[in-house]
Design brief:
Elements: H1 12-18, H2 27-34, E1 43-46, H3 53-66, E2 71-76, H4 79-92, E3 99-102, E4 118-122, H5 123-131, E5 140-145, H6 157-170, E6 175-180, H7 186-193, E7 196-199, E8 210-213, E9 216-219
Parallel strand pairs: 1-6, 1-7, 2-4, 2-5, 3-4, 5-6
Antiparallel strand pairs: 8-9
Length: 220
């Protein structure tokens, strides 16, 4: 799908940024759009690394922000990943969205975030923000959960599951976008999220499997 085919579905200033880098959407992105990404439908996206999952989240978030429907929150499992996303989004969307990073003091409501549009945070920090009744949480219209397969992780899983459950109760009209490279029970998780399941095997570099022995690799 050519990017220009969705030109009328996203804000003009957002499109102008995207067209500098993108001419054609990747398969998963096309599937997401056809399954309601730009119509506030919940989606669970399970595709390989580097297949374009982040842009799917950006399309939902920036459309909502620029059209004045509400803030977007981007939840990641690690502080390093949060910092990376913050730097990328701040550079890319300077001038059309105010981007913030929240992952510090877990005993604060971070009330200053009311001034920001796209907020990147960790699940632990967001859990703290909810418990401190951060007033700006009610302004969120898009919830993005990166690495959502960590629901199955013995350590982080329970916190993430409770967090998602609470968010769904607090923000009943918010669009939820779950992102994962691999997950064992995608259909069940999509049903739990009341989301459309987007699956695709496309990747930018073909993956070859083989066995290494004595300096040689025998591919399957």
């Amino acid at each position: 799908m050519e990017l220009k085919l969705i030109k009328n579905k996203i804000p003009e200033k957002f499109y102008k940024i995207l067209e500098k880098e993108i001419k054609k959407l990747r398969p998963a992105q096309e599937k997401a759009i056809k399954h309601g990404l730009l119509d506030k439908k919940n989606l669970l996206v399970c595709t390989p690394t580097a297949s374009g999952k982040t842009l799917i989240a950006e399309l939902a978030a920036l459309k909502s922000i620029i059209e004045g429907n509400g803030k977007a929150i981007y939840i990641v499992p690690l502080k390093a990943l949060a910092t990376e996303k913050y730097k990328d989004f701040k550079k890319k969307y300077e001038g059309i969205a105010k981007v913030a990073l929240s992952m510090g003091d877990t005993d604060s409501a971070d009330s200053y975030l009311v001034e920001y549009d796209l907020i990147i945070t960790t699940s632990e920090k967001l859990d703290s923000l909810i418990r401190h009744h951060a007033p700006w949480l009610s302004l969120i219209s898009t919830i993005i959960i990166d690495e959502i397969h960590l629901l199955n992780d013995p350590g982080r899983g329970p916190t993430l599951e409770i967090l998602i459950t609470i968010l769904r109760q607090l923000l009943k009209k918010a669009q939820i976008i779950g992102l994962s490279a691999t997950i064992g029970n995608p259909k069940e998780l999509a049903e739990w999220l009341n989301a459309e399941l987007i699956e695709d095997n496309w990747r930018p570099v073909k993956l070859h499997k083989g066995i290494y022995l004595d300096g040689e690799i025998e591919f399957e």
